[in-house]
Amino acid sequence: VGEMIKQALGMLFIRDEAKLPNLSTKEITVTEVRMSPDLKTAKIFVIPLGGKDAEEAVAKLKEFSFIIRKVLSKKIMVKFMPKLFFVNDDSFDYAEKIENLIRQTQK
């Protein structure tokens, strides 16, 4: 279900179908979706293009998650549409930090 939501959100953002004020969803990448065991909530990890203004973009997505949920409900068929919780994905920053540490130890 998480993968289905991830793909649907990706297409929804690329096509800019969820019209959010002051945010272009074309620049948002959905990296991962983690579902709760009861499938009632979805934790959605996103990162803006280039990683710029990530906190601001996530705040807008959180604020207008009800609009995204409404548009998403027309795209996928599930018994219960999960509540969407958007989180900034900092795994790329963490991976870069680890890579830099490895490079430093090799020198």
Question: Approximately what portion of the residues adopt beta-strand conformation?
Answer: 15-25%
N-to-C SSE string, H for helix and E for strand: HEEHHEH
Give the helix proportion (percent range). 40-55%
Number of strands: 3
Q: Which structural class matches the secondary elements?
A: alpha+beta
The strand line-up of the biggest sheet is 1-2-3
Query: What would the principal axes of the Cα set say about the shape?
Result: globular
Number of helices: 4
**CA distance, first residue to last residue:** 45 Å
Q: In terms of quaternary structure, what is this?
A: single chain
The major pleated sheet works out as: 3 strands, mixed
Which spans have pLDDT < 50 for at least 5 consecutive residues?
none
Explain how this protein is built.
The protein is an alpha+beta fold and 107 residues long. It contains four helices and three strands, in the order αββααβα. It is globular and about 55 Å long. The chain starts with a helix and ends with a helix.
